[in-house]
Design brief:
The chain is an all-alpha fold. About 70% of the residues lie in helices and about 0% in strands.
């Protein structure tokens, strides 16, 4: 459990119906309402962040990948040397 000095307070006004729902769910899981809410909020936040990052990175990476396939950059001298070493190791003449 985090120490008091490393925590922050969060307050929210919710309807009585939502409060009752959260309380019931916490009781079913044998947890305090605070633990239930904090865990649920943390999971939802992590999921939202992961979804946003995956979509953003996926779109950017897809664009770069398509551009590289359509217009590949020329091989550098170091890459050419690496290809040659690989050819010699894999299929010696």
């Amino acid at each position: 459990m985090p120490s008091v000095s490393s925590t922050a307070r969060l307050e929210a006004r919710i309807s009585k119906d939502l409060h009752a729902l959260l309380k019931r769910a916490a009781e079913i899981q044998g947890r305090t309402m605070t633990d239930f809410v904090v865990t649920a909020v943390a999971e939802a936040a992590q999921q939202a962040i992961e979804q946003a990052e995956v979509i953003r990175l996926s779109q950017a990476d897809s664009q770069r990948f398509a551009e590289a396939l359509l217009s590949p950059p020329p091989a550098s001298p170091a890459l050419e040397r690496a290809f040659e070493r690989h050819r010699q190791m894999v299929a010696p003449e």
